[in-house]
Design goal:
Blueprint: H1 2-15, H2 17-23, H3 29-44, H4 46-53, H5 57-63, H6 65-70, H7 73-81, H8 85-92, E1 117-128, E2 140-144, E3 170-178, E4 185-191, E5 202-204, E6 209-216, E7 226-230, E8 235-245, E9 253-260, E10 269-274, E11 280-287, E12 293-302, E13 305-314, H9 317-322, E14 325-332
Antiparallel strand pairs: 1-8, 2-7, 3-6, 3-8, 4-5, 4-7, 9-14, 10-13, 11-14, 12-13
Helix pairs in contact: 1-2, 1-3, 3-5, 3-7, 7-8
Length: 336
């Protein structure tokens, strides 16, 4: 449904509001903004899209509709303002850059450039040239899709999409060369939008040789995602066991903990609210009746970590009787 709304909004930008009104489609301001950014990206990078992927910017935009519809609006804006195609791709996917992924590794959790998350999948076949397509000829290449919304039947694979999402960054795969004619040589699999690397995915020492690899994919909006080259005529089978994608942002887990002042307290009494185990204090405050005097408000620190909040109250007899209290806001990053 979201994809349809963005498509309609793009039509509005290209054909005018009258056409959309006639179709009876209601478009929100956010969806119009989303479509505007998408149209800007398509127009701005049309020549490079043609060069990289061998398709018009309109064809590329159609293939990218699912990504445009699901992208964070802030990232989409950054992508429309990017100064290079690689920077645009990185912004569109929350920061992941196809150019720098091979050069860097994650430095911390939440690094939007390279902190990819692995999702395991049940074993699923996406390529089997014995079923469809026939062997790859000696010193020949063939292009394949790495993700699809339907199935992999056109390249001899599964009748499902194997659970691989649109624009996955890389696949965990087992690549197998079967019925290899020449027993010495090699096979290489690589993203279909870059030059073939001088490295082997499989070195032939006979037939039916396989290798487990992390296979980077061409994105965004590529007609095919990876290519396979072989020095010998061979059949090729590719089974997938999982995929890599940017992490999905998770809201911080927070709670507020309160502690009432003790009854009939004396002067300069500290009243502390302690955070639950695993939580850290991110703030706090003091409340009480009119006229309550606060001598100080600060984090309660244990072993260098803010574990709660403390209020130092002056002349607290009235406060203790009438309900003075300390509140601590405690937060943690979700997970085990």
């Amino acid at each position: 449904m979201k994809r349809l709304i963005v498509v309609t909004a793009l039509l509005c930008l290209m054909s005018g509001p009258a056409q959309v009104a006639a179709a009876g489609k209601k478009i929100s301001a956010e969806d119009m903004q989303r479509a505007k950014y998408a149209a800007t990206i398509s127009k701005k990078w049309g020549p490079q899209i043609q060069k990289k992927f061998g398709m018009s910017s309109g064809e590329w935009t159609e293939q990218m509709m699912g990504t445009f519809a699901g992208a964070d609006l802030t990232n989409l804006k950054r992508a429309s303002e990017a100064s290079s195609f690689d920077a645009m791709s990185g912004a569109l996917f929350g920061g992941s850059s196809a150019k720098n992924m091979a050069l860097r590794r994650p430095t911390m959790i939440g690094d939007t450039e390279n902190d990819l998350v692995f999702t395991p999948l049940p074993p699923c076949r996406i390529v089997d040239t014995r079923v469809t397509g026939g062997p790859i000829g000696a010193n020949q290449s063939r292009n394949f899709i790495g993700w699809t919304s339907t199935d992999y039947l056109t390249q001899g694979g599964s009748v499902t999409n194997c659970g691989i999402p649109e624009n996955a960054s890389a696949l965990s795969a087992n690549v197998v060369a079967v019925d290899t004619v020449q027993k010495a040589g090699f096979l290489t699999a690589w993203p279909s939008n870059v030059s073939r690397p001088f490295a082997a995915t499989i070195n032939f020492v006979g037939s039916d040789i396989g290798n487990e690899v992390v296979l980077k994919l061409c994105r965004p909006g590529c007609q095919t995602q990876f290519s396979v080259y072989s020095t010998s005529q061979t059949q090729v089978v590719v089974d997938v066991y999982g995929y890599y994608m940017e992490p999905v942002a998770t809201p911080v887990d927070c709670t507020v903990v309160g502690q009432a002042a003790p009854l009939l307290s004396g002067i300069l009494t500290d009243v502390s609210a302690a955070c639950p185990a695993g939580y850290a204090a991110t703030g706090g405050g003091c409340t009480g009746p009119v006229g309550l005097q606060i001598g100080g408000s600060f984090p309660a620190v244990t072993s260098g970590k803010p574990t709660g909040w403390t209020c130092r109250m002056a002349t607290l007899i009235i406060g203790g009787l009438l309900g003075a209290r300390t509140d601590a806001t405690c937060c943690r990053i979700p997970g085990r």
